[in-house]
Write a structure and sequence with these properties.
single chain, 6-stranded mixed beta barrel, 6 strands, elongated
Amino acid sequence: MLFKARKGLVRGAFTSLLVILLSSCIPYTSRTMNLEPAVLLSEVGLASWYGPKFHGRKTASGQVYDMYAKTAAHRTLPFGSIVRVTDLKTGKNTIVVINDRGPFVEGRIIDLSLAAAQEIGLDKNGLAKVKIEVIRLGNGTVEEGQASQ
């Protein structure tokens, strides 16, 4: 009887050890989420900024230009598009909403508001080589409050 009890104990220990060993052979899959938004398209070129002269005037989208909101002008992206702008020299970046058309100067790809320019240090130099990455394409309109992010 004592022999049967020990035999059962040994069998249980062996089974437990086998389960542990086999489960350690299962490959581990990381389930961390990538919180970076997917980039739909990107472009590299010169950025400039515009401010006081246009503050309070209507933009091409019909929204009033607020140089203290993080907005930008692009020649072709739909209004309401959300774009990350990164200064290639400093690595600083900002997120803007496209609510205007421009810039209409050869070689420039985006015109930033004063607030966006200040965030990446562009307001000091006036021009910088940047990479723009479209995070979300707009539907052609800018909803109220969207540009004041």
